[in-house]
Design goal:
Blueprint (H helix, E strand, L loop, with lengths): L23 E5 L4 H12 L3 E6 L3 H13 L4 E5 L5 H15 L4 E4 L15 H22 L8 E5 L3 H4 L5 H21 L5 E5 L8 H6 L6 H4 L16 H8 L10 E2 L10
Parallel strand pairs: 1-2, 1-4, 2-3, 4-5, 5-6, 6-7
């Protein structure tokens, strides 16, 4: 059975070592789920954090509150990152607030399952690609003038970019675009010593899952993730060490790669 959605208590025992001291990070989709967990972990590692979010002011405030309780600094800005102007604003907001930018985590996501391709409207297709693939590019483009040697770009894709998903055709496609752009950007930016990597999670229990799959499967809380070898979904806090690893300044010879955090659901990459 799937556990309850992410709670800040899951990171209370996180052991930080100051890996990101002096760094400034943007984490999109930072008001809940994976993004919230990453923002908290980065703050515990010493980074100042700016989160981008869409309409979930309560979740954004909660993230900032938790980071403050751990002695960290965080800011938040609302905006639809599927629109390039809002990505420009988020990057400039980070520069205005903290004076620099070292890490960009493109984590914002959207999915809406459909049991047949015939039900995927033009509007849904565009929205899915805007929030996943377009926003990743817009954020990277906006950030690049501010990124220096040693900067890190980290993109959250999905296992579905590699294995596909019969009910998430547009979402799998958008994540596939993220994977291809991550590898291409890595090739372009490696000589500037800016690393571009990503994480492709498997089934992770976040608020997005019941919100999007509940209409198809009322028992999603019981069934989600049971088909992977681990027999359960992952929790957001179980991914954060991978995000810290990819942001680590000492991780200097890895770029264009994806880490597969999926409970043992192995696939060819």
């Amino acid at each position: 059975m799937a556990r309850e959605a992410f709670s800040n208590t899951d990171l209370k025992d996180y052991k930080a070592s100051g890996t990101l001291a002096g760094k400034v990070a943007i984490v999109t989709g930072g008001s809940s789920g994976i993004g919230q967990a990453v923002a908290i972990a980065y703050a515990k590692e010493g980074a100042k954090v700016v989160i981008g979010y869409l309409d979930d002011e309560e979740g954004a405030d909660e993230t900032i509150k938790i980071i403050g309780q751990y002695g960290g600094e965080a800011r938040a800005l609302n905006g639809d990152l599927g629109k390039s102007g809002n990505c420009d604003k988020l990057v400039q907001f980070a520069i205005d607030e903290f004076g620099q930018l070292d890490i960009v985590v493109n984590n914002a996501g959207y999915q809406y399952p459909q049991t047949t391709p015939l039900d995927i409207t033009d509007e849904q297709l565009l929205k899915t690609f805007e929030i996943k693939a377009f926003a990743m590019f817009y954020m990277t483009r906006a950030a690049l003038p501010h990124l220096k040697k040693g900067a890190r770009i980290i993109n959250t894709a999905s296992i579905n970019a590699y294995r596909g998903h019969s009910d998430l055709i547009d979402y799998a496609g958008a994540n596939g675009a993220m994977v291809a752009m991550t590898r291409s950007l890595a090739r372009r930016l490696v000589r500037e010593e800016i690393a571009v990597n990503g994480i492709a999670p498997g089934p992770i229990w976040t608020p997005l899952i019941p919100k999007t799959f509940g209409h198809l499967n009322p028992d999603v809380a019981d069934d989600f993730g049971e088909d992977v070898p681990a027999g359960r979904p992952g929790q957001p806090y179980e991914l954060v060490k991978a995000f810290v690893f990819l942001a680590d300044p000492q991780n200097s010879y890895m770029t264009g790669q994806f880490l597969h955090m999926n409970g043992g659901d192995y696939m060819s990459t």
